[in-house]
Amino acid sequence: MQQAQAAIILFAHGSRDPLWRVPLEAVAAHIAAQQPGRPVLCAYLELCTPSLPDAAQQLAAQGATQVTVVPMFLGTGKHAREDLPVLVQDLRAAHPGVHFHVQTAIGEDPRMTALMAEIACEAPQS
Questions:
Q1: How confident is the model over 66-102, as pLDDT tens digits?
Q2: Is 10 exposed, middle or buried (0-12, 13-18, 19+ CB in 10 A)?
Q3: Which long-range contacts (CB under 8 A, 24 or more apart) does 50-53 make?
Q4: Is the CATH number of domain 6-120 3.40.50.1400?
Q5: For the chain, which residues make up each domain, given as ranges?
Q6: Structure confidence by residue, pLDDT tens digits, 50-60
Q7: Contact assessment for residue 39 and residue 5, using Cβ atoms and an 8 Å cutoff
């Protein structure tokens, strides 16, 4: 039996400004460094490429059988609550051999909340 290949898609809104992508791509690079055998891609709702369907297609073509979609939003707004479930439903229909799991918006994780609070309370550097 073939071992399932787990992959990650970091899903964000997107922006025309190329500098906007840098922090998201840094997260992907960090994951790739920590888990070199685990495919990770960034995907965007609009204004950037690849789209979520394109990223899923690429991972499926590489043999991914499990894909975790991580909404890189501070909260579960309209995009995470309404747009993402429709997109993931389409992914499941397009790739029946791939299990898609969607995490809660990254900003709603208590660890992220604590980290943001810690950063906000840091003393200014002179």
A1: 999 999 999 888 878 888 999 999 999 999 999 999 9
A2: buried
A3: 52/9, 52/11, 52/87, 52/91, 53/87, 53/90, 53/91, 53/94
A4: yes
A5: 6-120
A6: 999 999 999 99
A7: yes
